[in-house]
Amino acid sequence: MRNRLIKLSAVILLAVGAIVLLSPMNERWLNWYLAFNSKLLKVVIDLARVSLIALLIAGLLSPFEALGWWAGWYGDGIETHIPCKFPDQLNAPASGDSSAKQPGSQRVSPKRYVVYLDGISQSCADYPARVQNFLDTLAAALPADMVFIQDIMAYSALNRPLTIQRPFARVWRLINRVENWNPKSPLDIFINLRNTFQVAVSTDNRYGPVFNRGTAQVILNSLRQRGYQPGVPVTLLGYSGGAQVALGAVTYLKYALDVPIEVISLAGVVSGNNGVSEIDRLYHLRGDRDLLAKVGAVMFPKRWPLATWSHWNLARLVGRVRFISLGPVSHNGPTGPIDPVSQLPNGLTHLNQTLGIVVDILTSARSTSNAAKA
Question: What's the domain range around 56?
Answer without folding.
Answer: 1-61
